[in-house]
Design goal:
Elements: H1 7-17, H2 20-28, H3 40-45, H4 57-67, H5 81-93, H6 100-104, H7 111-124, H8 130-142, H9 150-164, E1 177-179, H10 183-188, H11 190-202, E2 207-208, H12 219-223, H13 226-243, E3 247-250, H14 254-268, E4 275-278, H15 279-288, E5 301-304, H16 316-323, H17 356-373, E6 377-380, H18 383-396, E7 401-404, H19 405-411
The structure holds iron/sulfur cluster (2 copies).
One iron/sulfur cluster binds near residues 34, 104 and 107.
Length: about 425
């Protein structure tokens, strides 16, 4: 990477795009080190460079370069190609933006948001991991990071509806609810798409997918490409407005939920014209309204909290409400809920091939947690977690079961599927 770029120009661009408010966090850090033990990367590797505070290093360097008392004499620390390469690994491979470190920080420093801002500055300088950036570019060009074009969406929905005998609404003229999809699901876990359709049909929801805006994941946001991040949000807003949807439901994807629910309005500079709910929140609403009738689940399960849905998303309780009176042998992990350990693949790390070994090490924390519960199956409500776990499970030849919350609920519906209203 660094051999073909103009290091000076890249460093200057990085500095120019480093947002001033992030620098204020540097002043707040008291270097207590309490965040270290909270980070799964440091826990898994023991590498001091994987401590959260160390990940502020690029911003600190930029700050010193700008504010160094004798900077005007050219005596500020220089940035070279090795610095840039090192920063890239820190900012992209060793932070899943999980926010766990902030729960330990006495100063409340939000390192995930600093890393997100630093990624934007880094990418503005023409840098960043090629595979993550390619996923963002594919989202702009083809509609999704995995090449799920509108045409492929139509074909796969038609195939899934036929194969499973479940009506899957696409491009209805009007609908109360716009359902979105993660291309990870559509391409790798299509049963999840069928499960969502089955549940919404069962509850009589007036819903549709839209080929105008369907991809819920936002690799523009994860990669630091702000223009693509905004474009992905605009597609969903346009699709929702064209069908008159009052609610947009995000599928089992943590960061998709976090971006659309908590960040999208800021990107657009105006409020979203609809409510945003994660599918687990929406199903919890249906259950509260008496619209989900389930047969009991006998097998022992535990629940993995996706960071962007629980800790950073505020929806940890709805998944448990869904499992209440349904999962007869539910066992919590320790720690759990807002303090749960990350799967290791959030924040775009799943899409970075060279980070695989580190992800596998991190997953051992999760394996140990699950084994301590004795549960047969770990359930999650994020397809990115699921993909990370599937790959890590294969790496370690782990015997533990994995399942999707939505699929589990759909598999235990009492009634036969009814056509959507
Ligand atoms: S946000 Fe998560 S992955 Fe990133 S430094 Fe903090 S604990 Fe580590
Ligand atoms: S816990 Fe907070 S104040 Fe302490 S070293 Fe980490 S970021 Fe700095």
């Amino acid at each position: 990477m660094t051999s073909t770029i103009d290091v000076h120009a890249a460093a200057q661009t990085f500095l120019a795009h480093t947002e001033a408010h992030l620098v204020s966090y540097l002043e707040a850090c008291v270097h207590c080190g309490l965040c270290a033990e909270a980070c799964h990367f440091y826990q898994a590797s023991g590498n001091p460079e994987h401590t959260p505070a160390y990940k502020l290093f690029p911003i600190a360097q930029a700050y010193r370069r700008q504010k160094f008392p004798l900077a005007w004499l050219g005596l500020a620390p220089r940035i070279d190609a090795d610095d840039l390469k090192h920063w890239e690994t820190l900012l992209f491979d060793t932070c899943t933006l999980c926010g766990r470190c902030t729960t330990a920080c006495p100063m409340g420093i939000d390192i995930a948001s600093i890393v997100t801002g630093a990624r934007r500055a880094f990418v503005a300088a023409g840098l960043g991991p090629a595979d993550l950036l390619a996923a963002a570019d594919s989202s702009r060009e083809h509609g999704s990071p995995l090449g799920l074009t509108a045409q492929k969406l139509r074909e796969r929905i038609e195939w899934l509806a036929d194969e499973h005998g479940v009506p899957i609404a696409l491009d209805k003229a009007k609908a109360d609810v716009l359902l979105t999809v993660s291309s990870v699901e559509m391409m790798k876990y299509p049963e999840s798409v069928v499960a969502m359709a089955k549940l919404l049909n069962h509850a009589g929801v007036d819903w549709t997918f839209s080929s105008k805006g369907y991809e819920a994941t936002n690799f523009g946001y994860l990669s630091g490409k702000s223009d693509i991040a905004k474009l992905m949000v605009e597609r969903i807003v346009d699709a929702a407005q064209s069908v008159g949807a009052r609610t947009v439901v995000v599928p089992e994807c943590g960061h998709a939920f976090g971006v659309l629910r908590w960040t999208a309005a800021n990107m657009l500079g105006r409020p979203l014209p609809f409510a945003v709910l994660h599918i687990s929140e929406f199903l919890a609403q249906l259950k509260r309204a008496g619209k989900l009738e389930l047969t009991p689940l006998k097998e022992s399960i535990t629940y993995h909290d996706p960071c962007q849905i629980s800790r950073r998303g505020g929806a940890a309780r709805d998944a448990r409400y869904l499992l209440e009176d349904f999962a007869e042998d539910f066992r919590e992990m320790t720690p759990t809920g807002n303090l749960n350990w990350c799967c290791g693949g959030g924040g775009g790390v799943q899409a970075i091939a060279r980070a695989a070994d580190l992800r596998y090490k991190v997953f051992k924390i999760k394996m140990d947690q699950v084994e301590q519960t004795g549960a047969q199956t770990m359930v999650s409500s994020c397809s990115n977690c699921r993909l990370t776990m599937d790959e890590s499970k294969a790496h370690w030849k782990w015997e533990g079961g994995l399942a999707s919350l939505v699929e589990l609920v759909a598999d235990h519906l009492v009634e036969e599927t009814k056509p959507a209203v």
